[in-house]
Design a protein that fits this description.
The chain has 137 residues and is α/β, with parallel strands linked by helices. It folds into 2 domains: 54 residues, 2,3-Dihydroxybiphenyl 1,2-Dioxygenase, domain 1, CATH 3.10.180.10; 61 residues, 2,3-Dihydroxybiphenyl 1,2-Dioxygenase, domain 1 (Roll). The strands form 2 sheets. The chain has a 4-stranded mixed sheet with strand order 4-7-6-5. A 3-stranded mixed sheet has the order 1-3-2. Strand 2 and strand 3 form a beta hairpin. The longest helix has 13 residues. The protein is globular. The model has no long low-confidence stretch (mean pLDDT 93).
C-alpha cells in the first residue's frame, strides 16, 4: 500500500475552506457550501469531508472531539526560520488559535503550532533550507 492522502471531518465547511485557502494558501476551488473538498497539496491528496455527508454515506454516526484536540498534526514546511515566524504571526492574526510560539528546538528545527478553527493541530516548521534540501545531510 501507498499513502494516497488524508482527510479532516469538518463541521463548518465554509469556515474551514476560508481558513485553509485564505490563511494557509491551499488551492481550493470548491464553493464554501461544498459537501466534500478534494485537493492535492504538494503531491498529497488532502480532503475536507463534511461530517454529515460522511455519516450519510457510511450509514453511521461518529463522535467528534470539540475544541483543541491532539488526534494528529498536519505538518507544513517553510524554507527559512524567518518564514516560520512570519507565517505564525499571519495565521494567528487571521484566525488560527496559537498553540506554541516559534521556537528553535535543540535538534536545529524552528517550529511552532497553531490550531485550525475546529481545533486540529498544525505545525509550521523549517530546517532553514529549501524543502528540496531539508532531508539531505
Amino acid at each position: 500500500m501507498r499513502l494516497d492522502g488524508f482527510g479532516l471531518f469538518v463541521n463548518d465547511m465554509g469556515r474551514m475552506i476560508r481558513f485553509y485557502r485564505d490563511v494557509l494558501g491551499f488551492e481550493i476551488k470548491e464553493a464554501e457550501d461544498a459537501g466534500n473538498v478534494y485537493l492535492v497539496k504538494d503531491g498529497t491528496l488532502f480532503l475536507l469531508f463534511g461530517r454529515k455527508d460522511f455519516e450519510k454515506m457510511t450509514s453511521r454516526r461518529y463522535d467528534y472531539v470539540k475544541g483543541l484536540n491532539g488526534h494528529f498534526e498536519l505538518a507544513l514546511y517553510v524554507d527559512s526560520f524567518s518564514e516560520v515566524d512570519t507565517t505564525y504571526r499571519y495565521a494567528v492574526e487571521n484566525g488560527a488559535e496559537p498553540v506554541m510560539e516559534p521556537t528553535t528546538e535543540p535538534w536545529g528545527q524552528r517550529t511552532c503550532y497553531i490550531a485550525d478553527p475546529e481545533g486540529n493541530l498544525i505545525e509550521i516548521g523549517s530546517w532553514d533550507k529549501p524543502y528540496e534540501e531539508k532531508d539531505k545531510e
